[in-house]
């Protein structure tokens, strides 16, 4: 999805005012759905998925044995970090539970028009494929995946062109807060994104759900508008909470100390985690006497959002923190470091298997010279 934060004119206050966005645009709290969702989907049970639009319709299809699909893109970048992977872990869980197809456009075009990438050359192509390998190594099976490089897929251009007559320049400008100084590619990209989202419905008759952050809902609204005009099933969406940055603020790929990149070496991971902001007290004595504040702690947030799946274990950590039984630097930070390293090791191993079967994940042939380079490294 487009990174709203790239657009300097976007009103940050509006972006973070989730309650208003939800009320205004008919997004529902996930609590209303909770009874329908199987408790064994970790990201729902932990309320990492906080809201939805029309996901009840998708669940209804699932109940009736009808197919549907998930779509989530990835723009090629050098700085894939653990926060980026949360959404793909969620997709993996949904796929395991419901057997749905997963469509993954690699949006090199988005990165290019928003000037995050300077060229659309072979290096960009390779980077996109490398990112896809990292994501598939989380455990995706080729049979259930449709992956493609957006700029290499004529079908997407064709659909984007088709949809472009249903969006006005003014609606895109208003929705994205454009000033008029942006390049033409950024305007047309809304049509490309709609093509990514709606292609499974148009080409395979599969209603889709898109997992995104609430701040990205504007793109869903543009796409749903097109879907309504074209009598295509409107895409559903589920809204995912972001993992907190290690420094306490939002996680950002461009601020290395806020995140753990998937290629960070162990020494760097240790340094970042040991420097993380916690809810601990200033002194050991105070920590023992008053206990810590897990709600303010980034380490606890990482446990809760992803790394500790066992609810009892998490509650025990919460209680022991509050009771002053745990010490941040002695107990929790080393624990998180070990969990992050284990996670990193696990998917690094799986990369080899993915590379062997790489072509099976893609809807188009991969350039042979790029494939060879990847297989030789
Ligand atoms: Fe966070 Fe653990 Fe420190 Fe509590 S003891 S504030 S959970 S790091």
Q: Can you describe what's shown?
A:
It contains 17 helices and 7 strands. The chain is α/β, with parallel strands linked by helices. The protein has 2 domains: 4-242, Rossmann fold, CATH 3.40.50.620; 256-353, Tyrosyl-Transfer RNA Synthetase (Orthogonal Bundle). The protein has a 7-stranded mixed beta sheet, with helices on both faces. Strand 6 (208-212), helix 11 and strand 7 form a beta-alpha-beta unit. The longest helix has 29 residues, at 328-356. The chain starts with 11 loop residues before the first helix and ends with a helix. The structure holds iron/sulfur cluster. Iron/sulfur cluster (SF4) is lined by residues 278-280, 292, 294, 297, 299-300, 317, 321, 326, 328, 332.
List the helices and strands and how they pair.
Elements: H1 12-16, H2 18-25, E1 28-29, H3 42-45, E2 49-53, H4 55-63, E3 69-71, H5 82-98, E4 101-106, H6 108-113, H7 122-136, E5 145-149, H8 154-164, H9 169-176, H10 184-204, E6 208-212, H11 217-230, E7 236-240, H12 266-274, H13 284-290, H14 298-307, H15 311-322, H16 328-356, H17 368-376
Parallel strand pairs: 3-4, 3-6, 4-5, 6-7
Antiparallel strand pairs: 1-2, 2-7
Iron/sulfur cluster is lined by residues 278-280, 292, 294, 297, 299-300, 317, 321, 326, 328, 332.
